[in-house]
Amino acid sequence: MVKSIIYTVTAIALCIGLFIFTEWYVQKQFSDFSEAIETLYEKVENKTANREDGFAVRELWNDRKEKLQTFLPHNDISYIDYWLSEACGLIYTENFELALGKLEVLKEITENLPSAYRITLENVF
Question: How far is CA 67 from CA 9, 60, 61, 70, 77, in A?
């Protein structure tokens, strides 16, 4: 009886620890990526962005997404890939007005996506 209680409490504590770590890790990865998107947005707004700027953000995302695929559904990750590819293509062709729209969507995604995986009452029930 005592062993069962100890095992149950230990399992619950490990699960809670894993949930807290996952939430922290996902938030950290997206905050770093969000800063890069914000910087790219400012460069596009000033019409000083170039192909290398978009490539640098894409490389940062590729590094992040390899690690995030453990925690997030692949559809959410491919959604970011899609919008980032669109924005980078528009930056490459120097179509800055349309690129701003794509980057605006990316900013919203990077702000809202991590909160969709937080442990809150809305997400649990």
Answer: 29, 12, 10, 6, 11
* Integer CA distances (angstroms), 50 to 22, 60, 103, in order: 35, 16, 14
Task: Report the C-alpha gap between 106 and 41 in whole angstroms.
Answer: 10
Q: What pTM was computed for the model? A: 0.81
Torsion angle, alpha carbons of 109, 113, 116, 118, to 10: -140
Q: Cα–Cα distance between 68 and 79 in angstroms, integer?
A: 13
- pLDDT, one tens digit per residue, over 48-78 is 999 999 999 999 999 988 888 888 888 989 9
Q: How far is CA 100 from CA 58, 61, 110, in A?
A: 16, 18, 15
Joined together, the tokens standing for residue 82 give: 């899609």
114 with 26: CB under 8 angstroms? yes
